[in-house]
Amino acid sequence: MLGQTKAAVSFVLVAFLLMMEDMPHANASSKLPDPINADVAEELFRLDCGHSLANDKSVWTPGENVGRRIEFSSTCWLIKHRSEWLLWDAGVPEAALNDPRGWSTLPKLIVYHLDKSITDQLAEIGLRTSDITRVALSHTHGDHIGNVLLFPNSTVLMQRAEYTWISSPDGTNDNVNQLKALARKLLGTPRHLQLLDGDTDVFGDGSVTLVSTPGHTPGHQSLLVHLMNSGFIILSGDVVHLEENFEKSAVPTLNTDKATSIASMDRIRRMMATYKAKLFINHDKAQTGTLKLLPAFYD
Ligand SMILES: [Zn+2]
Questions:
Q1: Strand, coil or helix: what is 223?
Q2: Nearest-CA neighbor of 165 among 257, 284, 38, 46?
Q3: Which residue stretches of the chain have pLDDT < 70?
């Protein structure tokens, strides 16, 4: 009887802790902002960081669309916070600019093209690469870190789990080995590297929060941004590639962990409810086409 009571108490406790997981201020160690009192960043700009054509959509929608072509957008985001600028993801390498042959992370599957450089887009709003104080990376796939080397003086923010993963010995999956080798090359050795362990409040005021969403890669993260007029916006990284995948919790075959990928999508859904947040999906070309593009911005 006592055992049963104990078990019941433990069950209630675990259920309570699970329920509180995404509730800000549930405990002092929560890094997620308070939806009511979070401060705001001033401006959020979308940069065109490339687009790509893949020859088999079923890699992203397992069991469906075998052999069908699909086009993806690649998006970077720039956030103004007081005197600082933070770049979220660094896109397809500028070396691919206007090259009709394109550039690839996995040549048998996908080819990327770049029509505009990050440097030129920053110049459109009067910025130089040296004005970007922080570069935060959702993960280390080449189409997200292609231009990190343009920002040698910026602090590079990424999850420690991601850094450890790309530095780990090769496994049996050749695609994954190729992606890791490319990641090491594109990342180089950042002078100011800040390795993160889970959720991180970047400016300490709840305006810009890195949110741990592993599964696509071991140290994948998304970004929660709070703006005065637009409210909360979640920038996906590759926690999901397409709106249709988000609706079905479909997990691409290239992801490193299926169950964790689904848990991360669930976490994003709960956060969308908590913060009444919009989700901007990096690679969803149809959605991206509806979003503002630099020099326009969200505020
Ligand atoms: Zn990716």
A1: strand
A2: 257
A3: 1-30
